Each structure stands twice: as C-alpha cells, then as structure tokens.
Amino acid sequence: MAAKNDVCIPVSEENTKHAQGSMSIEEDFDYSQRGQWLRAAVLGATDGLVSVASLMMGIGAVKQDVRAMILTGFAGLVAGACSMAIGEFVSVYSQRDVEVAQMKRDKKIEKEALPNPIQAAAASAIAFMLGAILPLLAAAFIVDHKVRLGVVVATVSLALVVFGWIGAFLGKTPVVKSCFRILTGGWLAMAITFALTKWIGSSAL
User: Fold this and answer.
1) How many Cβ atoms from other residues are within 10 Å of residue 176's Cβ?
2) Is residue 151 part of a domain?
3) Least enclosed by CB within 10 Å: which of 24, 55, 117, 203?
C-alpha cells in the first residue's frame, strides 16, 4: 500500500498543477479582445437573419407567390450585406482616426491596438450573408404558403438561439440571457413586419 501511495501522490500533484495552470491561463485571458470582431460578426449574422426573414414574412403576409418571397429576401441579402460592410468600415475607421489623433497628442503610437475597419467590414458582410441565407433556404423548396411561413419562423428561431449561444460562448457571457434576448428581438421584428404589412395590404392603399 505504501508503494502504491508513493506512486499516486506525485501523479495527483502533477495533475493538480496542470489543472491549476490551465485555469490560470483561462482566467488571465482577456475576452474583451474579442469584442471588436465578435460584435461585428454577431451583429451581422443576427441582422441578416432577422431583417431578411422579416422582409420575407412581410411579403408573405400579402402574397403567396414563393418567387416574390425569395426575390425579396435575396434583394435584402445583397443590399444588407453591402450596407453592413460600408457602415462598419466607416464607423470603425472613424473610431480609428479618433484613437490615432489621441495617440499623437499623447506622443505614442500602438498600431497593434488600433481597430481594423477592413476586418470589421468583412466580418459584418460575411456574417450578414450567412445569416440571411438561412430563411431563403428554408423557404425555397416549400410550396404550401402557410407551411412555408411556419418553416421560416422555426428556422429563424433555431438559428437565433444558435447565434446567441455562440456569442455567449465566445464572450464568456450568460448563455440563457443572450439566447432569450436575441430570440425575443427576432420574434418581435418578424411579428411587427408581418402585422403592419398585412394591415397596409388590406387597407385602401
């Protein structure tokens, strides 16, 4: 028994030190460094998913033609991706100019700490397209109008939960709050667009 204890003790200590080292590295990691690209990517994917799905739901409220829904969604995908890329590029470049000016006043330049407008623009555009293509694919092969609308809502809801989980996981933030917040926002956007479009379509206009 003594011999076994002599062998087990150092192994246990080594495993403990290794675990403590891993925990220390994880605790020391600054997750705020992910903030720039994570914000752009999550915002782009969520915006693409919700805005294109809302456009499709709006058209679906007044028209049953699947081609009209798909064309509207595709136009929203292209326009939205371009808008997100340009918006991110301009806003991040403006932020970069402000930081550079401040660094010059402080007489220090740290280029590695400056925000990257091209990275933010690319992340937003790509993420927007990835998010926007999901409701398009969900509606493309369904003939029945009501079933198509239901599938779009279900697909978007699942994707929103996944996006919320990814954002929370990468940023080490509460998962439930993140998923609930993004899911509720998506439902509201689709419901409001559907209701208003249907009301306008059924009015004298």
Assistant:
1) 10
2) yes
3) 203
CA 159 to chain centre: 10
Average pLDDT estimate for 15-20: 48
**Residue type present at position 46:** T
Is 143 within a domain? Answer: yes
Give me 59's structure tokens.
Answer: 């058209």
Helix or strand or coil: residue 115? coil
CA distances (Å), origin 38, targets 112, 163, 164, 201: 18, 11, 12, 39
Tokens read off for 100:
């550079």
- The answer to whether 190 and 50 are in contact (CB under 8 A) is yes
Q: Outline where the chain has alpha helix (H).
A: 2-28, 35-62, 66-106, 117-140, 145-171, 175-202
Domain residue limits at 67:
34-202
Please check whether residue 168 lies inside any domain of the structure: yes
The DSSP letter of residue 144 is S
Q: Does an H or E element contain 119, and which?
A: helix 117-140
Structural domain count of the chain: 1
Span 118-164, pLDDT tens digits: 888 888 889 899 999 999 999 988 989 999 999 999 999 999 998 88
Give dist(CA 94, CA 100) in Å, integer.
10
